[in-house]
Specification:
The structure is a homodimer. By secondary structure, chain A is α/β, with parallel strands linked by helices. Chain A folds into two domains: about 1-205, NAD(P)-binding Rossmann-like Domain (Rossmann fold); about 240-430, Rossmann fold (3-Layer(aba) Sandwich), CATH 3.40.50.720. The first copy, chain A, has helices at about 1-5, 20-30, 40-50, 60-70, 105-110, 130-145, 180-195, 205-235, 240-245, 270-280, 285-315, 340-350, 385-390, 405-410, and strands at about 10-15, 35-40, 70-75, 85-90, 95, 100, 120-125, 155, 175-180, 200, 320-325, 355-360, 390-395, 415, 425-430. In chain A, strands 3-2-1-4-7-8-9-10 form an eight-stranded mixed beta sheet, sandwiched between helices. In chain A, helix 2 (about 20-30) crosses helix 4 (about 60-70) and helix 11 (about 285-315) crosses helix 12. Chains A and B meet through helix 8, helix 9, helix 10 and helix 11 of A and helix 8, helix 9, helix 10 and helix 11 of B.
Chain lengths: ~425, ~425
């Protein structure tokens, strides 16, 4: 296997052509590996096989380049037998009650089962609780007739993908790897060393799983803290953005986090609860995670309370007011609205009887979502449209929005991002 | 005033010759200003007037140098009339019930009152709640017959001193300044620009006060989080230090904080509660601060529970065991034991009937403390002494300790700092 990797003869199978799998497939292709991408969604496979990117933040050229060096997308899991390395990058969401939902991993394992063969290495990249690889994947592989560390190798290597981050790439982000056995770890290190500048070995798959959770718990808690502090400094007449920016001038011991309308995306609102769930099995509690979850998920309501205040000052109610949600992706410069708190704000405004619209240069039509349905296309941002709304709620900042024009023409701005001049009467910090 | 500062003719009065005031006095002296240092403690004044440093982390030469350029320490507040700038660096502890204790500030104001004169600027550097300068200092100065912004100037500029930090100095740490009026801010900026590379003006004294609280709240919460996670990963058989170190390889979005036996010193355990207290006046709550306080202050008990476990495995109890607390200063390479969690651990061990001793290269004799009394001198660390203890509890890591010798000779090590090889039976992670 080591030779195959060094000679780039190893065939790489990436399961899950999403935000994690696609950049990883590109990286392996760039290094000269033959990559087969597996996805249960035929549309995703077909788009990519046409050399097109399924994501705004990844260029078509990157996909086309990968195709030209042999990449194939497929939904046919029998082709698993053709790959040397199986890298699983499927979602790990939460069930109701904040329980881990491994159904995508389990579905992947079942689909692959008849096609596993001796000598393969399997790497799980999906975020999950410490113990998953040993408790879920290992017994499955053993049940399929293999011996881990002898004729099948098993590692966990958490993805650290940050969509839209222009400063770091798959290659320059160090990759943590833990193996079930020493031999597993060694092979895992060989594979990832082929595509990243630095591989960070840890003592176990459990440790590697926990590393990723810590990273996202750290973010969730720090965002939760500054969101709570926003609600504390606001009645004191202080601007939390000014405070954070000034604190950020301390050259040690402080890292700035900024408040917002909540947390979104497929990681921060979800991953920490994988630890919470597992901790309960050990009779211990994760109170910071739960507090952060509570505070962050209460933020949309806080934003709407500020909308109510702002409209009230003008003698208006939300009912029958026309409200524009500005920026509905979960973070800047992406097109992903999964778990976006902006959508929660839209839901609340609608519930209060507001006529809610949205504008987002990255989201032309409100997408199909499991929990939300809005029959809307993006409002074009012109002085006329902006001034026609009773209030504009800034939720996510994107490049390519003319904020000065909005500041000039909006009747009322509810600003969750500290983007507008809060000394104006019509700007309400939220 | 501006001219006086630029020509370095302004006389600087520093009130409180402690961890903050002394480095500040040195910095002004280094720039050629005449500095008068005020302190109510005659010993502190006398030590410094002899050209000696009251602190381990500050060299005698720095004090002697300051004396040679005109520094004088005094307890005579009538000399306030001789200074142009009054910089208050006195402690702001907590009363029982976690209420702010401004008695040192109030005592300073009362002592200075007869000697205030027109044209002076007063800068408060002591950490305090947002509003203190306006609510406490301003009325006092006005009551003394001055008009803020006209014949007396008032600013708040939080200290960012980090004793033992060799990477940053008073000069290279940016200094946040807020003024009661525009004119106050302008004068504050002139004064601090004379001694630091970068002054960061903020919109008000309240904002400047909040900046400092945010910095320390951020630390308290992040340390609390990793302390809680230690108690979660420990039963899972994971080493929290390995996890944090691996997560720290992520080049964005993560900052490592390490667990320990609690938090100590004069800032982190105290400052956050100034905001908690003030928040209650506005009917809002600071749940992260309270959770961090609860978890961090429970750490000494956690450490002792690990001592109990470790001794129990050897068939021993704390009662009648000889226990060594290794490192009692509140952090590495300082000699300050104020609020040190190590001392809490010592108290608990004594309460459980243990024969407790300590070793710390920076603390030769257990100092007089308000809440703690141990009639002890530091145990010398030799193979014989180390092996004579039933357990060694590593609490604070200092340079100049031979950890390898301790690892070899200790019977049992309770390691709160991840310093020893935890795969050994005799090392218990705590």
């Amino acid at each position: 296997m080591k030779d195959k990797i060094l000679k780039k003869d190893a065939v790489i199978g990436i399961i899950g052509l999403g935000y994690v799998g696609v950049p990883l497939a590109i990286r392996f292709s760039d290094e000269g590996f033959k990559v087969i991408g597996f996805d249960v969604n035929p549309n995703q496979v077909s788009v990519m096989n046409q050399g097109k990117s399924p994501f705004k933040h990844i260029d078509d050229e990157a996909i086309a380049g990968m195709i030209s060096t042999g990449f194939e997308g497929t939904g046919d899991y029998s082709r698993i037998s053709q790959v040397d390395a199986i890298i699983i990058c499927v979602p790990t969401p939460l069930k109701s009650g904040n329980e881990p939902d491994l159904s995508f991993i389990e579905g992947t394992l079942e689909a692959m089962r008849p096609y596993l063969r001796a000598g393969q290495v399997l790497s799980l990249e999906s975020t999950t609780w410490p113990g998953t690889t040993r408790e879920v994947i290992q017994p499955f592989i053993e049940d399929a007739g293999f011996t881990i560390g002898e004729d099948f190798f098993l590692v966990f290597s958490p993805e650290r993908e940050d969509p839209g981050n222009e400063k770091f790439t798959v290659r320059t982000i160090p990759k943590v790897v833990g193996g079930v056995t020493e031999k597993c770890l060694e092979i895992g290190q060989h594979i990832y060393s082929a595509i990243v500048d630095r591989v960070v070995p840890v003592s176990s798959t459990d440790a590697a799983e926990m590393v990723k959770l810590l990273e996202n718990i750290h973010r969730s808690v720090n965002i939760g803290l500054v969101n709570e502090l926003k609600t504390v400094t606001d009645p004191m007449g202080l601007n939390i953005f000014e405070i954070v920016n000034a604190a950020a001038t301390k050259p040690f011991g402080f890292t700035p986090y900024y408040p917002g309308p909540g947390v979104g995306g497929h990681c921060i609102p979800i991953d920490p609860f994988y630890l919470t769930w597992k901790a309960h099995q050990f009779g211990v509690h994760t109170r910071f995670i739960e507090l952060a979850g509570e505070i962050n998920s209460a933020m949309p309501k806080y934003v709407v309370s500020k909308l109510i205040e702002g409209l009230n000052d003008q003698g208006k109610a939300i009912r029958n007011s026309k409200i524009l949600a500005l920026g509905i992706a979960y973070k800047s410069d992406v097109d992903d609205v999964r778990e976006s708190p902006s959508v929660e704000v839209m839901e609340l405004v609608r519930k209060w009887g507001g006529d809610v619209h949205y504008a987002d240069p990255n989201v032309a039509t409100f997408p199909a979502m499991r929990k939300h349905e809005f029959d809307l296309v993006a409002t074009e941002l012109t002085p006329e449209t902006v001034s026609s709304f009773d209030a504009v709620i800034l939720l996510t900042v994107h490049k390519g929005i003319d904020y000065q024009m909005i500041e000039e023409h909006a009747q009322l701005i509810i600003d969750t991002r500290g983007k507008f001049d809060a000394s104006q009467d019509k700007v309400v910090a939220a």
